[in-house]
Amino acid sequence: MAKRRKDQDVNVFLGSDSSLEGLLTFTGEARLDGAFKGQIKGTGRLWIGPTAKIEANVEAAQVIISGELIGDINATDRIELTVPGKLKGNISAPLVVMDEGVNFEGHCSMASGEVLEEAKKVTLLAAGK
């Protein structure tokens, strides 16, 4: 059996019969299957499992949602919503992936400030200015 790289190990796990309130900070990978209310800040991947009920604003590199989340998400890499995921909140990431059948209510922004500035430059060059 191949050994997983250390940065892929789950550093935080909240089981389906657990609940927690407050500020959750993590590096690496975190998986939430229970109830959480508060704020989540991480530099790695956050998995929100199918039994999770989360009320939090989230900052992470990657966020994968299969459960329920109420709150805004700011991801530096990507956001994925998979069935039976439900999300009520605004999302911002360079890449957003949604499966057919997920429930999303909010606004989506897929361009960072740097990307918008580059797009303006390309438009100006294409216009011959």
Walk me through this protein's architecture:
This protein has 129 residues and is mainly β. It has one domain. It is 11% helix and 52% strand. The protein is built from 1 helix and 13 strands, in the order βββββββββββββα. Strands 1, 2, 3, 4, 5, 6, 7, 8, 9, 10, 11, 12 and 13 form a 13-stranded parallel β-sheet that branches. Belongs to the bactofilin family. InterPro entries: BacA/B. This is Cell shape determination protein CcmA.
Label this structure with key terms.
1 helix, mainly beta, globular, 129 residues, 13-stranded parallel sheet
Please give the count of helices: 1
Shape: globular
Helix content: 10-25%
User: Terminal Cα separation, in Å?
Assistant: 58 Å
Question: Which structural category do the helix and sheet elements fall into?
Answer: mainly beta
Secondary-structure element series: EEEEEEEEEEEEEH
Structure summary, number of beta strands:
13
Q: Mean pLDDT score, rounded?
A: 86
Profile the largest sheet.
13 strands, parallel
Into how many domains do the coordinates divide? 1
Radius of gyration: 17 Å
% residues in beta strands: over 45%
**Are there runs of 5+ residues with pLDDT below 50, and where?**
1-7, 122-129
